[in-house]
Design a protein that fits this description.
Layout: H1 5-14, E1 21-23, H2 31-42, E2 46-50, E3 76-80
Antiparallel strand pairs: 1-3, 2-3
C-alpha cells in the first residue's frame, strides 16, 4: 500500500543533510507500517525505536528534539544502519 507519507520519506532519504528521522502523529494512522516498510524497502539495516512501548525510552517526555545529553525525542525513530 502506497501512503502519502512515502513521498516525504523518500525526500528525506535523498537529502544530503538528513538527520535521524523522528515521526510523531495521531494514533492508528499507519506510522509504524510506513516506517518499517520504508526501512525494509530502502535499507539493508535499520534501527527502529518506539518511545511509547519501550519501557526505558518511555521514561523520556515526548516532543523534545533528539540530543546527545538526554536523547529526548518524539514517538518513533528510524536511523539507517
Amino acid at each position: 500500500m502506497k501512503r502519502d507519507i512515502t513521498w516525504h520519506l523518500e525526500e528525506w532519504k535523498k537529502s544530503h543533510r538528513r538527520k535521524p528521522l523522528i515521526l510523531n502523529g495521531a494514533r492508528q494512522v499507519g506510522k509504524t507500517y510506513s516506517l518499517k516498510h520504508f526501512g525494509k524497502s530502502f535499507y539493508e539495516k535499520m534501527a527502529y525505536f518506539n518511545f511509547e512501548k519501550d519501557v526505558i525510552l518511555s521514561q523520556y517526555e515526548l516532543g523534545y528534539k533528539w540530543s546527545r545529553e538526554g536523547q529526548h525525542s518524539s514517538q518513533y525513530g528510524l536511523c539507517p544502519g
